[in-house]
Each structure stands twice: as structure tokens, then as C-alpha cells.
């Protein structure tokens, strides 16, 4: 097994632990292991044994399958067969927060055998793609024109997120989409987003691309609909 596998696994464990508000010391006591050993697991410095992984996932109340790569494909699943060439394991999304005056981001991970999906909100890409403020669980579905995600936050504020984007045909191409969720003040909002198969460097060009264009504002006034072009 590659070293990167255990590093990624450790990052996911750390993100799940932090989201649960559990300290290393508390987890160590629950699984009867030292905080130092758990820290090495999380940093990918030591390969974690399957029995230790089961104990940790049980203590964190995390489904172990969410942390591991998919190992099968349901060949009877019509959607998987129909949209096989469009299936994407990982996506990066970006949006502009006008109140904070900065571009924010998230990372999506999909498991296509189960069509389950997770989104790591506001990731710290410089340190770890899995270090995030919130982790939402949900599903992904494909159609002839778009990819749709529906997520639920399993921790406060327990809100839901809906994301819709066009099918991504080319690897180097980014697409626009929409994300509906709630604001910091629990107001329903819809955001214009950029979607990419690979992480983007946030530049003025990216920022400007995320701003509402005069044409989009004009269409909003004309149709009373937010139409992202």
C-alpha cells in the first residue's frame, strides 16, 4: 500500500475527530492507545492496522467505508453504466463571499459504487485538503446535462446544501454552477460557484469570474431567476 494512502487516511481521521469535537487525549482513552500513537496515525507516520482503524471509527461513530477507497462497482447500476465516462471522484469548488471580500472553497469526494458523497467546506489547501470547518454527507447523481449533489450537515447547524453543475467533459476545463445553503444568519442563499477537477490558484481572474456579471443581474431582474451562464 502506498504511503500516500495512509497519509490521506490519517487526514480523514483527524478531520472527523475534530468535527466531533474530540481531543486526541479523549480518543486515546476511548480506544486504549496513547495520544502519541494516534497522532502518528493522523499524520501518516505509522501505518494503521485494520483492528485499530475499526476501534477508532467505532469511537468516533464514523462509517469506516467513508474513509477507504471503493473496492467494487455495481455493474447493474444503470446510472454508473450510462455516465461512466463522466464519473468524478474528486472536485474542487470556489465561490466569492462579498461580506468577507474573499474567495472561499470546498472539496468534494464521491464514492460511485454507492453514489455517496462528502464535502469538506472551507478547506485549508496549504496544509491539508481535509482540514475543514464543516463536513457534510450526502449523495451524487448524474443526468444527461448535469451533476447534482444533496448534502446534510450532521453537526450543528444541521443545514442542507444543494449543488448543481454541468457535466465536466474536459479535465482542464472549469465550469460554473450554483450552490444553495444557509448564511451565517440562517438565511436561505444561492451562490455562484466555479467547479474544477483540480485545485485552482485564486487569482484576480478567478475572483472576477465568480462575481455576478451585469448580464446575470439583468436576467435576474427580467426573469426573477438566478441564471448562471
TrEMBL record:
Keywords from the UniProt entry: DNA-binding
Organism, as annotated: Mogibacterium kristiansenii
A Gene Ontology cellular-component term: cytosol
Domain HTH cro/C1-type: from-to ranges: 13-67
GO molecular function, one term: DNA-binding transcription factor activity
A Pfam family recorded for this sequence: HTH_3
Protein name, as recorded: Helix-turn-helix transcriptional regulator
CDD domains named among the record's database cross-references: HTH_XRE (cd00093)
InterPro entries: Cro/C1-type_HTH, Lambda_DNA-bd_dom_sf, TransReg_Diox_bact_type
Amino acid at each position: 500500500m502506498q504511503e500516500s494512502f495512509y497519509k490521506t487516511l490519517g487526514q480523514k481521521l483527524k478531520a472527523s475527530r475534530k468535527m466531533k469535537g474530540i481531543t486526541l487525549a479523549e480518543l486515546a482513552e476511548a480506544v486504549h492507545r496513547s495520544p502519541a500513537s494516534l497522532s502518528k496515525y493522523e499524520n501518516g507516520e505509522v501505518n494503521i492496522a485494520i483492528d485499530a482503524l475499526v476501534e477508532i471509527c467505532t469511537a468516533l461513530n464514523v462509517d469506516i467505508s467513508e474513509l477507504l477507497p471503493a473496492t467494487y462497482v455495481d455493474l447493474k447500476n444503470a446510472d454508473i453504466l450510462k455516465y461512466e465516462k463522466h464519473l468524478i471522484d474528486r472536485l474542487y469548488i470556489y465561490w466569492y463571499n462579498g461580506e468577507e471580500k474573499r474567495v472561499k472553497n470546498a472539496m468534494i469526494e464521491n464514492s460511485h459504487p454507492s453514489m455517496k458523497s462528502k464535502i469538506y467546506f472551507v478547506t485549508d489547501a496549504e496544509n491539508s485538503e481535509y482540514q475543514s470547518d464543516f463536513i457534510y454527507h450526502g449523495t451524487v447523481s448524474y443526468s444527461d446535462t448535469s451533476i447534482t449533489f444533496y448534502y446534510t450537515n450532521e453537526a450543528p447547524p444541521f443545514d442542507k446544501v444543494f449543488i448543481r453543475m454541468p457535466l465536466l467533459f474536459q479535465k482542464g476545463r472549469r465550469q460554473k454552477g450554483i450552490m444553495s445553503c444557509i448564511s451565517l444568519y440562517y438565511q436561505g442563499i444561492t451562490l455562484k460557484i466555479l467547479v474544477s477537477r483540480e485545485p485552482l490558484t485564486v487569482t484576480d481572474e478567478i475572483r472576477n469570474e465568480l462575481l455576478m456579471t451585469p448580464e446575470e443581474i439583468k436576467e435576474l431582474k427580467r426573469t426573477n431567476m438566478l441564471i448562471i451562464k
